[in-house]
Amino acid sequence: MTAVEPGGVTGVPASPGRTVGPARLVRSVDDFGRLRPGDVLVCRTTDPAWTPLFHLAAAIVTETGGLLSHAAIVARECRIPAVVGAAEALSLLEDGAPVVVDGSLGTVTGATR
């Protein structure tokens, strides 16, 4: 739950897999339209209203939650990587910056090109 490197965070490994994509910071339902296919959804938490976004996202990162949270369960069902309980993800990650999400290790780090 602390920064692992500039632009990186750790949390609970909630759905296995590793992917790279641009971080898309979504703070409320008003931001849903900003998410594009292949983006990494970064948010405070999710609930059933957020479920359609899981079909667009390459991975999920939430600031709250655990293995039985909505984000973790739906990410596993959609077979996309997820890291939950990643404190301060919305303030430590930059919108649009490429990130590597490792849902097996619970890490989110900056991607190199």
Automatic annotation (TrEMBL):
Endpoints of the signal sequence: none
Region (Disordered): 1-20
Gene3D superfamilies with a match to the protein in the record: Phosphohistidine domain
Domain PEP-utilising enzyme mobile: 36-106
Gene Ontology terms for molecular function: transferase activity, transferring phosphorus-containing groups
Domain of life: Bacteria
Pfam families, A to Z: PEP-utilizers (PF00391)
InterPro entries in the cross-refs: PEP-util_enz_mobile_dom, PEP_Utilizing_Enz, Phosphohistidine_dom_sf
Protein name: PEP-utilising enzyme mobile domain-containing protein
